[in-house]
Amino acid sequence: MGSRKYTWKTAILEICMLVSSLVIVIPLLVVLFGSFKTSSEAARYNFRPPDVWLFDNYRQVIEKAHLWLAMKNSTLITVSVVAVTSLVCALGAFIIGRRKDRLSRFLGTFFSLGLIVPMCVVPTILLLNLLHINNTKIGLILVLIASNIAWGMFLLTNFIDTIPRELDEAAFIDGCGPLKLFWHVILPLLKPVLMTNIVIVGMGTWNDLQTPLYLLNSGKNITMPLTVYNFKGQYFSEWNLIFADMVLVAIPMVIVYIVCQKYIVAGIMAGAVKG
Amino acid sequence: MKAKKKKCRTDFLYPKYLLLPVILIFVVFFIIPVIGGCFISLTNWDITRSGVRFIGLDNYTSIVQDSSFKKSVVNTLIFAISIVVSRNVLALLLAMIFSKGLKTRTYLRTIFYIPAILSYVVVGIMFNALFQMDGTVNQILNFFGIMCRKEWVASADTALFTVIVEDIWKWTGFHMMIYIAGLAAIPQDFYEASRIDGASSWKQFRYLTLPLLIPALTVNITQSIIGGFRVFEQVLTLTKGGPGHESTVVGMMIYEYFGRGFYGKATAITMLLSVVVVFVTIFVRRFFESKEVSY
Fold first, then answer.
1. pLDDT of residue A273
2. Which of A260, B63, B85, B169 to pair with A250, CA 20 to 30 A apart?
C-alpha cells in the first residue's frame, strides 16, 4: 500500500481526516484545559487554554475526592485481576488448546457465554454475602476475574495453536512434567499475547464503573471511576475539579496506551481475524 | 489419522486438573449467579419484604406492563440500531480512507483510538459539558452562524440522541482498527486483477472488499450489537435516563429497580435481557458464517 502514489486527491482526503480528528481532540482539550481553570472559567466549556494555569486544582481534588485511597484501591484491584486472569487463563488455554477433544470444544463455547451474557447483579451480591466477602475488594476482584475469563480464554486459546507441539514432546523427553512444561516452555512463549491480555483486561478493569457501582458501597473501597461519579454528584458546579479528576482517571490509561500500543493492536488483530 | 494417534500419546502432558482454577472461578462467580438469577426472578423478593416466596412469572408480567420499561425497550432498540449502523459505516469509511496511504496515518490512528481507552465516566461527564446549554457544541454551532441555545441533555427530544453521539464518539475508532486489520489482510493482487478486468470501484467494494471483510464485519457487528443491548454506563453518566424516563434503557431500568430494592424484578429484567442478547448474537453469527467466502 505504501507504493501508492500521493496525488492531490489523497492530499484532500488527508486534510479532511485531520479536520475530522478535531472531533476527538476538541472535547479532550475542553477537559484538559478546563482542569487548570477556575470553576467559573471551566464552566464556560470552551477549548481555550486557561488564563492562569491553576495546578492547585489537582491538589484540591486529590484531597476532596480521596484520590490517594482510590488510586491505591484501583491499582490493587487492577493488578490482582490482571495477574490472576492471565495465569488461570494461560493454564486453561494451554490444556484446551492442546487437547482437541469434545470437552475442550464444549468449554470453548461455554466460556464464550461470558462475552455475551451481562452480569447478574442480585444473585452475585447474594453469593458474595454468603461467602462473607460482600462489599470487599476481594469480592469485587473475584467477580471481575470471572467476567474477564471469557475474553482471556478466547485470546489465549487461539494463540496456543501457534506453539509447535514438538516443543512439548522435547520438554517431556527432557523430563518435564505438565506443570514444568507449562511454566518453563509454554508461559515464556505466550509472553506477547499475555501482554495483550494484560493491557486489555487491565484497561477494562481500571475503567469499569458498573461493577464497583453495584458491588461496593463503602467509602473505603472506592475506585477511581467511582470518585468521578460521586464527585460530580456532590460538587456538580465545580467543573474544574471534576475535569481534574477525569484527567487523573484517564492519564494512567493514556500512558499505558502510548507505551503498549503494539500489544493493543495485536489484540485487536487477533479478534479481527479469528472472530 | 496420524495426528489423532499422536494426540492420544501425549494427552497425559495436558491433564484436565489444570483446567480447575479457570472453570472454578468462572462457574462460581459467573455461571452460578446467572442460574441463581433464574430462580430469584421468579420470587417476590424486595427490600421491604421479610418472607420471600415463589410467585411464578408475576415479575415478568408486571414488568412488561410497566410503561417506563416499555419506553426503555424502545429506546434500547433505537440506540442499538443507531449505533450498530453508525459505528460500522463510519469506522469502515475511516478504515478505507486510511488504506489510501495517508502521510499522517499513525498520528490519526492514535487519535481516533483514544476514546476507546477512556472510562465511560470520563466520556459521559465530558459529553455533559459539551452538550450544556452554553456548552461547547452550541458554541461551535453559534460560531458557524447557527444560533442554538438547546439543553441537549435535559430535553426530551434530544437526550437519547446525545447518548447515541457519545457512544459513536467512543467506539468508532475501535471498530476502525478492526476494519484496518481486515483490509490489510486482503491481498493487493486481487485489486490489481479486478482493475485489469475493468471493475468499477463500487463493484470492487461490493464484490471483493465486502465479502473478504466478512470476518471483520462479524466481529464488529456482533460486538456493537452486544454493546447496544447492554448499554448502561453511557446513559448513567450522561442523562441518567432523564428527563423523566425519556432516555432510559433496559440496563438503566435494572439499576433503578435494584436501587428501589425490587430485587426479584431487577433480576427478571436481567434475565430477559440476557436471553435476547444471546439469541440475537447467535442469529447474527450464523448469518455471517453463511456468507463467509474464501478465494
1. 58
2. B85
